[in-house]
Design brief:
The complex is a heterodimer of chains A (157) and B (514). With 157 residues, chain A is of the alpha+beta class. In chain A, 29% of the residues lie in helices and 14% in strands. Chain A folds into 2 domains: 53 residues; 93 residues, Alpha-Beta Plaits (2-Layer Sandwich). In chain A, the strands form 2 sheets. Chain A has a 3-stranded antiparallel β-sheet with strand order 2-3-5. Chain B folds into 3 domains: 89 residues, Ubiquitin-like (UB roll) (Roll); 112 residues, Alpha-Beta Plaits (2-Layer Sandwich), CATH 3.30.70.20; 226 residues, 3-Layer(aba) Sandwich (Rossmann fold). The radius of gyration of chain B is 28 Å and the shape is elongated. In chain B, 26% of the residues lie in helices and 18% in strands. Chain B is built from 15 helices and 21 strands. In chain B, helix 12 links the parallel strand 17 and strand 18. Chain B is an alpha/beta fold and 514 residues long. In chain B, helix 9 crosses helix 15. Classes of the chains: A alpha+beta (157), B alpha/beta (514). The interface between A and B is medium-sized, with 20 and 15 residues.
Chain lengths: 157, 514
């Protein structure tokens, strides 16, 4: 019996907290509408996905392979990103480039975004600045796991 | 014996040894690039400088011989400073290629820079541009920028192989290693050059850009491609199961074994590793549906044991035919000899080995299987498959290996009631036999082999055997036990070591002197 009363008390406390936030925010928003400036502002919610917040300059989003001057990736397939990757989601197969300055290029470059933890170590490890996480693409959900495996064509841009 | 002091630690060492070897024996490593145990000291890299009390200048550890009471310092301030200076000069012309260099990861120059260098370069000049991709042999690429002119490759070809294809051309800053008159290095030991190069100047086309050294796991084994039995290091990648990449052997290096192969292996053994990766059989196949056998070893074992028992009961054990090969280890041959020759009296025993080819006078032998000598010492008479003798009056055939010629067998097998094959690879033979059992290769099991000189060498598994395959010795020991002919004898054998002990008790050749 006493327990049942405690439950009700908790529910009432919850309603009071929600109500307090509602009315306090309502009060400051009303003041703003009336043109009265206050130090405190009412809480703002962004209407995602219609509205989107600006992404910070040093964010980490979907990877991309930076193209060099000739349009091919800058990557020399040194596999340092695959080495440093803590979730082992990068797989590279190297091949011989006829260009003597390059020598080595990635024939296959696969990132399994489904495993990636977005730590950004690959970007730090890259000696050629060939991989970056600056595409500002953060909505990466897919219906299929296989679609989360990005290959060279999808990464190069 | 003389007594010297290395970093004030007394070391007793034989007269005539060099300071470098003495330090190595005492557990102190002195960095060196041009020195290699197989050659006399050259002293061109200057990395092994040490301070010796009483001498005004630093001395080369690789070529200075020990004297009674000599006091050597390998880590004094002067030495550390000198090492740094030497490294700075070596790296003055060495490109910053490490990300695309195959040697990175087991490069000595890289290791030494990390250990003794760590300086900021004082050179403001550009590094000299040189040829980066000179093909100097069938499998070798020379990068003249990376070369530090230690001349290990030149000395290897001059002193070990004696073909002398390489030399150092030009002088001073222009000096470079190259081939004479466009005759490439084309001997059977060229792969060793890529292995002894302390930097990434000589790289192997076979391994070039395939993977990075630090991804590979290593294990020591014995090369089964000829009867020399060279010690090898198998380097493999366990596989990315997430990307559907299977386990793969990437390269084979020579391991040091003074009694057999020294520091070298031939190109046949070095590049002939594809048999470990390709076409492997990983499950038991039963081709006779009417037998209703599940492809599980325990069930097959009972079936085979039953067969043997029945043949023995009827006194028809001479109707068993065996086809063996010299890829089987001593332990396996011993068990086969015991079960089929001693216990069952099978007479038709043939050997199907790869055909003999020309050897060279260094390491490669004409016999292209590792345990020819072992089979002979075990009491087998090595005779090739005789298909007519095989076909006549045979009820059961037990064959091993994938060196059987299909043409030899096709006619002979038709009349035989039960045909069992132990093989490691998928081949056309698999459909000719009733039961096919997958087996591991030398690198995937334990045991011992007897090389051409009669040296018995033990080896243990480096790689995991694929799928359902079980080592032959285990299957044979279980078969011997299950067939119930000499149960107490086979019961003891649960590891290759125990079988080897058993061999020693019976055959004096394999007895280990204690």
């Amino acid at each position: 019996m006493i327990k049942a009363i405690e439950y009700f008390l908790e529910i009432i406390r919850g309603v009071v907290i929600t109500g307090r936030h509602f009315f306090v925010n309502m009060f400051f928003h009303t003041l703003k509408v009336l043109g009265i400036k206050t130090k405190r502002k009412g809480a703002v919610t962004i209407q995602y996905p219609e509205e989107k917040k600006k992404i910070a300059a040093r964010h980490r989003s979907l990877h991309r392979l930076v193209p060099g001057e000739n349009g091919k990736p800058r990557c020399v397939a040194c596999m340092l990103c695959a080495t440093v990757c803590p979730s082992e989601c990068i797989y590279i197969e190297a091949a011989e480039d006829p260009d003597l300055e390059m020598q080595k290029y990635p024939a296959k470059f696969i990132i399994d975004i489904g495993r990636c933890c977005f730590c950004g170590f690959c970007v730090e490890a890259c000696p050629e600045d060939a991989i970056r996480m600056d595409t500002a693409e953060v909505e990466l959900a897919e219906y299929n796991r296989d679609d989360l495996v990005y290959d060279l064509d999808r990464l190069l841009r | 014996m003389v007594k010297i002091f290395i970093n004030e630690m007394p070391v007793e060492i034989e007269e005539g040894t060099t300071v470098l070897k003495a330090a190595e024996k005492a557990g102190i490593s002195i960095p060196h690039l041009c020195y290699h145990d197989a050659f006399p000291p050259e002293g061109s890299c200057r990395m092994c400088l040490v301070e010796i009390e009483g001498l005004p200048k630093l001395e080369l550890a690789c070529s200075t011989r020990v004297r009674e009471g000599m006091k050597v310092f390998t880590k004094s301030e002067k030495v550390v400073e000198a090492r740094k200076g030497v490294l700075e000069f070596l790296l003055a012309e060495h490109p910053l290629d490490c990300p695309i260099c195959d040697k990175a990861g087991d490069c000595k120059l890289q290791d030494y820079y990390d250990e003794y260098g760590l300086f900021e370069s004082q050179f403001s000049e550009h590094k000299e541009k040189r040829a980066k991709k000179v093909k100097i042999g069938k499998n070798l690429i020379h990068d003249q920028e990376r070369c530090i002119l230690c001349r290990r490759c030149v000395r290897f070809l001059r002193e070990v192989i004696k073909t002398q294809e390489l030399g150092v051309f030009e002088r001073g800053i222009h000096s470079s290693v190259n081939i004479y008159d466009l005759t490439p290095v084309n001997n059977n030991y060229s792969g060793n050059l890529a292995q002894i190069c302390p930097v990434g100047a000589i790289t192997d086309l076979d391994f070039r850009f395939k993977t990075r050294a630090w991804f590979l796991e290593k294990g020591e084994s014995i090369c089964p491609l000829c009867s020399r039995g060279c010690s090898i290091i198998i380097e493999y990648h366990p596989g990315h199961y997430r990307f559907g990449v299977p386990r793969k052997v990437y390269r084979i290096h020579a391991s040091k074994n003074q009694e057999v192969n020294g520091f070298w292996i031939c190109d046949l053994g070095r590049y002939g590793y594809s048999y470990l990766n390709e076409n492997r059989l990983d499950r038991i196949i039963v081709n006779r549906e009417e037998w209703r056998l599940e492809p599980v070893w325990d069930i097959i074992l009972k079936f085979l044991a039953q067969k043997l028992k029945r043949l023995e009961y009827r006194g028809k054990t001479s109707r068993i035919a065996l086809i063996l090969n010299s890829w089987l280890s001593n332990e396996e041959l011993f068990l086969l000899h015991k079960i089929f020759k001693t216990d069952l009296n099978a007479e038709k025993v043939f050997f199907a080995d790869p055909p003999q080819e020309e050897g060279d006078n260094f390491l490669l032998t004409p016999e292209r299987s590792p345990n020819n000598r072992g089979a002979r010492e075990m009491g087998f008479d090595i005779k090739p498959v005789h298909s007519k003798a095989l076909a006549e009056e045979t009820d059961l055939i037990v064959a091993f290996g994938s060196f059987l010629a299909e043409a030899d067998l096709k006619g002979a097998l038709g009349k035989i009631e039960t045909k069992v094959l132990f093989t490691s690879h998928v081949s056309g033979l698999n459909s000719l036999f009733d039961i096919v059992l997958p087996t591991p290769l030398i690198a995937e099991k334990g045991g011992s082999l007897t090389n051409v000189d009669g040296r018995v060498q033990k080896f243990s598994a480096v790689l995991d055997p694929p799928g359902d395959s079980l080592p032959e010795w285990r299957m044979l020991a279980e078969l011997g036990r299950e067939a119930g002919i000499n149960v107490s004898f086979y019961r003891e054998f649960t590891s290759p070591e125990e079988i080897f002990e058993g061999i020693g008790k019976e055959i004096s050749f394999f007895r280990v002197e204690k």
